[in-house]
Each structure stands twice: as structure tokens, then as C-alpha cells.
Specification:
The chain is an alpha+beta fold and 471 residues long. 35% of the residues lie in helices and 20% in strands. The protein folds into 4 domains: 6-94, Uridine Diphospho-n-acetylenolpyruvylglucosamine Reductase, domain 2 (2-Layer Sandwich); 101-219, 2-Layer Sandwich (Uridine Diphospho-n-acetylenolpyruvylglucosamine Reductase, domain 3), CATH 3.30.465; 223-336, 2-Layer Sandwich (Alpha-Beta Plaits); 344-433, Alpha-Beta Plaits, CATH 3.30.70. Helix 1 (6-16) runs antiparallel to helix 3, helix 9 crosses helix 12 (336-343) and helix 13 (358-372) runs antiparallel to helix 15. Bound molecules: flavin-adenine dinucleotide (FAD), D-malate and zinc ion (ZN).
Length: 471
């Protein structure tokens, strides 16, 4: 739904043109609901600038007119951060037209891109220059660099390359009063005072609007290997992780854990997907790469698998023999979220813990959930190499997913209290948005919340940037 306001619409139209101020309910519909369909909002208008100057003019006008702004990239976020409030007071500022790859500097190994460029487009631009941009998410065809930085996205290659924060060297940001901060520096060393770019990374549109960024590029992978391993429990997966790290060093790029339930769900909604090693409780998808041609990755991994079979760490394993087989194994993993969306609502947790404490945490949490919510299904998967699990709790078979969502506060308490007790985080990579605002207050110390509030009021004194999100 859109709440029209002729004066505001006229002012915005003067900045971006009539075609880029969407006010009809049909045009606005895709921008006011989140990917999971959990949040539905309404807006005065959806505004789609094409340049940083236009973003600055919109923000300056909204600052004068006291109109709150919800920045939006690809709208693939998991926490409702890009969805406007139902009150209809806000505008949605979509960066989707700002897609240009401004420059690739091969010798400096950097790319300068606009915030609305999709992650896949940036990966392609790097590949065209013979280099690699390693951030990798199942949503990469739709999510944008602005969204990736604003959520400090993680994904499946963090183990080797780090998350979005580790991959950014500079940013261009429109501040709450409409000024443009040009921090587009491609420097790997710069100790000139506070590192301001990191304030905007992970701030979910609450401190400024990212309009462009300088990102790090890496040497391209010339040898790639994907393998699927089956283990009887997560403690064994953790041992296998240690063995793989020892064997491969930083050639180990991804180590993704999936429960049998998670894979069954992926296959239920995508029946063409393979089932190469049925009847094991847990699986690990392993990705390794080397920058040399014909590197001995397969030998290293086969030797590690042989040792892991000998000491009963591993139950079974298979190595993809072609790029096509590798893609099909990855499809099993990458379709889990989409399968969950089709299956209906579920209580999502995006947690991180020290890897060493994950097996005991999972056993304890599963027992507590079984006592409190008998029959609830656990759909557990995620980035075990980073200590990050997507620990999702779904309704018992044959019961209503919608009704089950009433149990979210109880399930959150069971899971998040145990995460906090183990020194973990209640949001490893998806952010806070609207979904975890109350949880944040509960688990962050008073001093951290106080510092966050002070930063927010210093950078956005009128509270117009993505209100009601994070804090
Ligand atoms: P949006 O959803 O549009 O916005 C996200 C937040 O950033 C909002 O708060 C918004 O206000 C703010 N924002 C967006 N653009 C800007 C900007 N230019 N300036 C300031 N603020 C801005 N996430 C992971 O971390 N790891 C994963 O492995 C992963 N896998 C996913 C798989 C699927 C199938 C899906 C649907 C999502 C997945 N995600 C994952 C979540 C999501 O894709 C990421 O959070 C992504 O970084 C969001 O990018 P976006 O452009 O879609 O941002
Ligand atoms: C993933 O790793 O696939 C995601 O972060 C998405 C999800 O948790 O659903
Ligand atoms: Zn993830």
C-alpha cells in the first residue's frame, strides 16, 4: 500500500523524474514486503535515483521535510531491514538503478562499484579482468553491494576470504543531512584516525546511504574442487574441519554443514537434486581452490578422507568429477532457504559460537526444544567453518506453520540464552533489522547499546534513516 502525498511526490519527481517515483500500490508492491514474506509495510513513495547527486538531493529534501527513509538494495535481507513500517510515513529509497561498475584496477586489485550493482555483476566484472571477488551468497543474482555492505554479509567463502567488512577498502556515503562523503580510497593501509567506513558496514541503513564502494579483488582460482562428506554427528564434522584445515591451509574456502532434514527439505522442493549418499545424519560440503593450474587438491583431499575414514571421523564421501557435478552438489546447499520459504513460516536463528562448543550446544538445545515444543522440526545448516549455523525451528509435520510462529518468543529464549551462555552471537551474518531488535536489547550490554545510540544520534540526529531498525 502507498500513502500518497502530492507535495513530497512533486519534490521527488523534480529530482528523479516521474518514472522513478512509484506511488501506485501495484508498482510499490515488490518493495514493501520482504523476501520471506514475513513483513509487510507501506510507503509514501518508492524513489529510484540514478546518481549519487540524486540520492543526496532526495536525502537533503527528506531531512528538511522530516520524511523518514528506508534504503533498499535487492530486498533479499532476512530480518525485515529493508521493509518500511506499516504506518506509511516513510519513503523507500531503492538503489537498484545505480548499477555501474565504475572502474577495475587490475594492478591494485580493486573494483569501484555503485551500491545497486548486484553481487553477481561484481563477481562477473572481476572475472572478466582475470580476478576474483570472493563474496558468495545464494542470493547473489539479486542482492546488491550496498545491501551486502550494510548487512556485513557473510556467505560460503568467509572461511578463506572473510565477510563483506573484510573485503571493502573505501565507501561513498550520503549522510543524513544530504552531504556526500567521498571515502572511495583503494588503500590497504590508511591509519589517518578513526576508520569511518566501518561505521557504515553492518549498520543496515541506519547511519547513512552507501552509494558506491571500492572492493578488494583476489587472484582467480585455477583449480577447484567440491566434495560432499557424510558424518554421524557434528563433533565428527568439527574434527574433519580441523583435518581439512591442516591439509589445505587457506586453500580451504568453504565448509558447509547440512543436516539430513535440511537436505531432505531441499530435495522435497527441488526433486531433480541429487542424493549421492543417503541415510546419514549430517553432511558437509567442502569447497577448496588453488590459484595454480592442476594443483593437487584432489590428492590432498583424498588423503584426508582416507585418514578420516581410518579414525572413524568420516562415514562416506564423494568428490565431484566435473563442474556440473560440483554445481549440483552446491544446488543442494543453496536451495535450502528457498525450500524453507516454500515450506511455510519457520523460526529462524542465525547464530555463531566458538566452533569447539557447537556439538554440545546442539545436543543441549535440541533436548530443550524437544521438551518445550514436542515434534518441532529442526532445519539446521550453515557455515560450520565460521562457527555460524542457521538453526531453524519449524512446525511439527501436519501442523500449521503460521500458528507455530506464536512459539517464536519461547524458541528464541531457548536458543539465544544458550548461545549467550556459550559466548556466541544471536546474529552472525543476517543483521538485526526489525526481527531481532528486542533480542539485541536483551543480549547486548548496556554500555554497547549506549554507544550505539550515541553514534546513531551523532550521525542521524533527527532519526530519519531507517527508523525502527537495529535500535
Ligand atoms: P536489502 O535486503 O535490500 O537490505 C538489507 C539491509 O541493508 C536493510 O536494512 C537496508 O535498509 C540496508 N541497505 C540496503 N542497501 C543499502 C545502501 N545502499 N545503503 C544503506 N543501507 C542499505 N546473507 C548472508 O550474510 N549470508 C548468506 O549466505 C546469505 N544467503 C542468502 C540466501 C538467500 C536465498 C537469500 C534470499 C538471502 C541470503 N542472505 C544471506 C541474506 C541477504 O541476501 C543478505 O543480507 C544481503 O547482503 C542483502 O542484500 P540486499 O541488496 O538484498 O539488501
Ligand atoms: C544461507 O546461508 O543460505 C543463508 O544465510 C540464508 C538462510 O539462512 O536462509
Ligand atoms: Zn548463511
Amino acid at each position: 500500500m502507498v500513502v500518497e502525498d502530492a507535495t513530497l511526490t512533486d519534490a521527488l519527481t523534480r529530482i528523479v523524474g516521474h518514472d522513478n517515483v512509484l506511488t501506485s500500490a501495484a508498482d510499490a508492491a515488490p518493495y514493501v514486503v520482504d523476501w520471506r514474506g514475513r513483513y509487510r509495510g507501506s510507503a509514501r513513495a518508492i524513489v529510484r535515483p540514478a546518481t549519487t547527486g540524486e540520492v543526496a538531493a532526495i536525502v537533503a529534501h527528506c531531512n528538511e521535510a522530516r520524511v523518514p527513509i528506508v534504503p533498499q538494495g535487492g530486498n533479499t535481507g532476512m530480518c525485515g531491514g529493508a521493509t518500511p513500517h506499516p504506518s506509511g510515513r516513510e519513503i523507500v529509497l531503492s538503489l537498484s538503478r545505480m548499477r555501474s561498475i565504475r572502474a577495475v584496477d587490475r594492478q591494485n586489485a580493486t573494483v569501484t562499484v555503485e551500491a545497486g550493482a548486484t553481487l553477481a555483476a561484481v563477481q562477473d566484472a572481476a572475472a572478466a579482468a582475470g580476478l576474483l571477488f570472493p563474496l558468495s551468497l545464494a542470493s547473489e543474482g539479486s542482492c546488491t553491494i550496498g545491501g551486502n555492505l550494510s548487512t556485513n554479509a557473510g556467505g560460503t567463502a568467509v572461511l578463506r576470504y572473510g565477510n563483506a567488512r573484510d573485503l571493502v577498502l573505501g565507501v561513498e556515503v550520503v549522510l543524513a543531512d544530504g552531504r556526500i562523503w567521498d571515502g572511495l580510497r583503494g588503500l590497504r593501509k590508511d591509519n589517518t584516525g578513526y576508520d569511518l567506513k566501518h561505521l557504515f558496514v553492518g549498520s543496515e541503513g541506519t547511519l547513512g546511504i552507501v552509494t558506491a564502494a571500492v572492493l578488494k579483488l583476489f587472484a582467480a582460482a585455477r583449480t577447484r574442487l567440491t566434495a560432499l562428506a557424510a558424518v554421524s554427528d557434528v563433533a565428527r564434522a568439527v574434527v574433519l574441519l580441523q583435518m581439512m584445515k591442516q591439509a589445505l591451509g587457506d586453500r580451504l574456502v568453504g565448509f558447509e554443514l547440512m543436516s539430513d532434514e535440511a537436505l531432505a527439505l531441499s530435495r522435497k522442493h527441488h526433486p531433480d537434486l541429487p542424493n549421492p549418499m543417503p541415510n546419514h545424519a549430517w553432511y558437509v560440503l567442502i569447497q577448496a581452490t588453488d590459484t595454480a593450474f592442476n594443483a593437487p587438491l584432489a590428492t590432498n583431499i583424498e588423503e584426508t578422507f582416507a585418514a578420516a575414514l581410518d579414525n572413524a571421523t568420516l562415514a562416506d564421501a564423494t568428490i565431484a568429477q566435473s563442474e556440473e557435478q560440483a554445481e549440483r552438489l552446491w544446488a543442494l546447499r543453496e536451495n535450502i532457504s528457498e525450500a524453507q520459504r516454500r515450506e511455510g513460516p519457520n523460526i529462524k536463528h542465525d547464530i555463531s559460537l566458538p566452533v569447539s562448543s557447537i556439538p554440545a550446544f546442539l545436543a543441549d538445545c535440541a533436548a530443550a526444544l524437544a521438551r518445550a515444543l514436542p515434534g518441532a522440526r529442526l532445519v539446521t545448516f550453515g557455515h560450520l567453518g565460521d562457527g555460524n549455523l542457521h538453526y531453524n525451528v519449524a512446525a511439527p509435520v501436519g501442523t500449521s506453520g503460521q500458528a507455530f510462529m506464536e512459539n517464536a518468543p519461547l524458541a528464541n529464549r531457548i536458543v539465544h540464552d544458550r548461545v549467550a551462555a556459550a559466548g556466541g552471537s544471536i546474529s552472525a551474518e543476517h543483521g538485526i533489522g526489525q526481527l531481532k531488535r528486542e533480542e539485541l536489547k536483551r543480549y547486548k550490554s548496556d554500555i554497547e547499546i549506549d554507544l550505539m545510540r550515541r553514534l546513531k544520534s551523532a550521525l542521524d540526529p533527527l532519526g530519519l534513516l531507517n527508523p525502527g531498525k537495529v535500535l
